[in-house]
Design a protein that fits this description.
By secondary structure, the protein is α/β, with parallel strands linked by helices. The chain has helices at residues 45-48, 70-74, 76-83, 102-121, 162-179, 192-197, 209-219; strands at residues 23-24, 29-30, 42-44, 59-61, 88-90, 126-127, 151-154, 183-187, 202-206. The protein has one domain. The strands form three sheets. Strands 3-4-5-6 form a four-stranded parallel beta sheet. The longest helix is centred in the middle third of the chain and has 20 residues, at 102-121. It is globular.
């Protein structure tokens, strides 16, 4: 979209991420076609890039605080060789808060889709992450994603508080209603209300890496 009309000498917009993209919706989010593979296990980006992390037989996800992976947006090319060692990547989960200005919600979705497009272009298997903000985001957040594709949703920190739980349940149910996936990756816990409301969907639930490591530490004394 930008390659022919934009001077890339100082590409502060990372236009190269979307040179090959096709777009959907008024916002022109890059279209992301999910791979057809269910992750065997997931590791957060901040762990995956550590020099002493050697288990490449897994998928990288971004279900952690934004400051831990914003470096990937700032310098994608630096991390590409490392990410290509893994089996695949869940696209970045930039935060969308219900009280966030709408323009920021849209931009965070764009950032995730742009990086996903570029990873696919570079031979990395990708499953798109779906993150919704408030109900206004329902109008655009699904643009560029394909019905029936595998998708991923993070629920860490959203299922304990009643208000937050209601928001994530509504968001997951709306996502399934619109995208009609057969398989949904859940990083965190799956609300029973969601499971009960969607009996035809295969949910693949992965406990958080932090919680998993904590349990291993307790079990091994």
């Amino acid at each position: 979209m930008y390659k022919d009309n934009y001077n890339t000498t100082y590409d502060v917009f990372h236009s190269y991420l979307v040179w090959s993209a096709t777009y959907a919706g008024e916002e022109e989010f890059p279209c992301i076609k999910s791979c057809n593979e269910i992750p065997n296990k997931l590791v957060p980006f901040s762990e995956a890039i550590k020099k002493d992390y050697k288990d490449f037989d897994c998928w990288v996800c971004f279900y952690e605080l934004d400051y831990l992976f914003i470096r990937f947006w700032n310098n994608p090319k630096k991390y590409l060789p490392r990410l290509k060692k893994f089996r695949g990547v869940i696209s970045p989960d930039f935060s969308l808060y219900a009280n966030m200005p709408l323009v920021m919600q849209k931009y965070h979705i764009y950032m995730s889709r742009a990086l996903a497009n570029w990873l696919i272009e570079n031979g990395v298997k990708v499953i798109p992450n779906v993150r919704l903000g408030d109900e206004r985001s329902y109008k655009f957040a699904f643009n560029g994603l394909y019905k029936g594709d595998i998708i991923s949703i993070g629920t860490i920190g959203t299922t304990q508080d009643k208000t937050e739980r209601k928001l994530i349940v509504n968001a997951i149910n709306k996502t399934i209603e619109v995208l009609e996936p057969n398989d949904v990756v859940i990083y965190g816990s799956l609300p029973k209300e969601t499971e009960d409301a969607n009996p035809g969907v295969h949910f693949h639930v992965y406990e958080s890496y932090t919680f998993k490591k904590l349990k291993e530490k307790i079990n091994h004394g």
